[in-house]
Amino acid sequence: MFSKFTSILQHAVEALAPSLPLQEDFVYHWKAITHYYIETSDDKAPVTDTNIPSHLEQMLDILTQEERERESGETGPCMEYLLHHKILETLYTLGKADCPPGMKQQVLSFYTKLLGRIRQPLLPHINVHRPVQKLVRLCGEVLAAPTENEEIQFLCTVCAKLKQDPYLVNFFLENKNKKLDTAKGGGADLVKDLSSPDTGQNQNQNPSLVTSAQEGAASQATSPWEASPSSVHTTLPNNDNYNLVSSLLNLTKSPDGRIVVKACEGLMLIVSLPEPAAAKCLTENTELSQLLTDRLAQFYRALPQSMDPLDIETVESVNWGLDVYNLKEDAVAFVGKRALISFLSWLDYCDQLIKEAQKTAATVLARTVRERFFVTVMEPQLMQTSEVGILTSTALLNRIIRQVTSEALLQETIYFLLGEGTGPETLAGITQHPLRHRLIEHCDHLSDEISIMTLRLFEHLLQKPCQHILQNLVLRCLEERNYMENKQPEEREEREHMENGQPHDAVDLEEDPLFSDLSPDNRLSSPDWLSCSPPPSTEHAKPDGKTEVHKIVNSFLCLVPDEAKSSNQVEGTGYDTYLRDAHRQFRDYCGVCQKWDWRSSPKPFEKCNLDSPFFEGHFLKVLFDRMGRILDQPYDVNLQVTSVLSKLSLLPHAHLHEFLLDPYINLAPGCRSLFSVIVRVVGDLMLRTHRIPEFTPKLLLVRKRLLGLEPEGMSVDHVTLLEGVIVLEEFCKELAAIAFVKFHASASTSP
Length: 751
Known about the structure:
Mean pLDDT: 82
Distance between the termini: 93 Å
Strand content: under 5%
Structural class: mainly alpha
Strand order of the largest sheet: 1-2
Number of helices: 34
Helix content: 55-70%
Low-confidence stretches: 1-6, 12-18, 180-238, 488-543
């Protein structure tokens, strides 16, 4: 009661007294605080019942006013007083002792406001960064503490200051050995500080602010602005504690979601600092990597063992820290929605943090995610034999790939899935990376759902801006162009004669009645990557490029015989509808591939090892096998297979273009191209259509039903075959459009 009366009387006196010079006013308020510790006998009364909060606020106002009235960068007498008399050190000691109760909150708030309001750089001063560093260590010590809000505000303010001047982070890398020596030699001083805080006063005299002998020595030995990061941090990073990160990590475990989000924001600022020593200390001496991976694993394991892939694919995107809990609505939507959103939200945080991180730190963090989450947690799920488990884990992997955007994490994800190999693939070596082999095999799984989901996974992979994906899956098998015939004319004639004109396991397109009007040496006239196989002889005159591209386009458009076509009888399904999509998609792919070192034209034959055995690669083998069964597969499977192949065809790589879109390449014995696979399918189709009565009307009916133009009625015989024919026709039109767009894009950029 008496203290409250004294406080009221003091405020009244202050209001009536004439205004003092700022320094006198500042010293007055600091003396009032220290005077409390000399005279008070009740140290259990909360700090809010004292004048301390008011005096601290007045001191902040004075410092702010002083800076405002002076030129930029000039230090005023009040700030000099605060620095030379080590007021922040004293406040830290009081806050650590929490005397009176609640003092820690007041000290944290004072530090936060001081760093936030004062524009001049304070952290380089030894009497600022030392107590700040000590106060950082106090944060996060106790979960759900009453000071959590002030702690996180203080830590985030420090992080923001370091973001402005990254070199200052070296002040916060504390040497472990030095800290241990201080703890051994300075224990008595620490006890003394706690029992008798440094108030800046001589307790045997009338209250007046003086410095202790120790403070005087420190202030004489060190100029207020003399300290530098290099003088403070001179030890090897691997002997350092990164207490700022440790405190933030502790606060990420708070039960208060708002505190967790703020702590994550602070970590995001810290990892982006470019200082190499800080980045090394971050990855070697903190538990940041463990936090990221442990939580990913925790959220992943909390997911139901079985989930609808459609739910996984369509659940709304959630940015980290913004997911709103509504357990009732989530449970109604589908079981596991809340767990899925929590997992995706934390994945988004990991992705964004690695994207923002300093380069070497990002690499280490991403590799840790690969080793501790992907390999340890996800790989066993992807390698299991349960079809339900495979489907769910593949759908989750698909969603992860769609969501990852950071370069380092994407690369480690790709290495996890496909391995790091880029050399020529062999049939005997396709099992060297078991997960890659298993995923590709799943593209041709007995379960159509698993096949579709895995094909969709690879389709998303092909759209990622990572050159290694394409090199690993397809390009490494095409480098030497040994899918081409490597025989002299005399040898070829002799071999073809021995085989009755039929090259072994290859399709002679020149003999096919569908292409009898096309010359085998016709090639696209383009100096760019679109150049197809060079003609056997330079003596043959080449037609102009416009005529040639139309022949290539027509070669795809004419693949399906007229009696098996149905698009011409339905409006809006012409070839031109694919041109716009092909143009847009090809432009997007060119933008992604522009920075890659892809050859602008096919590798010259004389530099190719054409005698080495050709293997199309496990991935293309499965796709071609699937394409060869297009007339016998479900409609949805066919759509996904052709979608993946069209994505590959769009890529601006000379060899891939030649292998997938050149109808006239002379294939080596035992080799096949996309065009030759389709020719075989068409040959099979022509034999089977004659066995189906009323084939054309049934085909048209099925097309209209697929387009929603006809209601579902009586079942149609051979519906799988009919749907396959429709997909085949549309795919050929799409390939024709892609060839046309790629030619014109090349022609417009050629000299």
